[in-house]
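Hi everyone,

Forwarding the result from last night's run.
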Amino acid sequence: RLWLGTEFEARSYPILVPHAASFGLIAVGIVAWHTAEAFRKPGINAATSIVLATVAIILMLGFVGGGEEGIAYGRVIGAAITLPVVLYVERTCFGRPLFAFWAANAAILTTVAALIGYIQTHAISVLEVSWHTLILTAVAGTCGFLAAMLLTRFLSRSMIADLRRS
């Protein structure tokens, strides 16, 4: 609404949501990717890339009848391949999947996302649509994110030191 108008907002939202989900799934897969690399198992990454790309392309082409949204959901389903790969890499490298690690991180990040969502939604609901509101909500969201990361001790001391140095 700010610069592209409500028509763009209405048409892009159904496409951007599944794309965000697919990028989130791929981001989770990055953990497995680096783990496999660290344990000198690059073949897992090569196989994952080939399978993920092949399945996603086939699904996107298969869902073309659903328009841009169908293609986006094809990509999400293809990206979901990363989840079993994460479990496989953890079992291969650590002897077992790290369910406690993922559960703890999911709980913290879900709480943080809810907090940021509340802060930004509240700020947007009481302020008029403007560039100032956009900047304010971005700053409020960033501050809320950092505060939540500090309060939950999600960031280690070394991470905080690295942030201060950068």
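The chain has a mean pLDDT of 89.

Cheers,
N.
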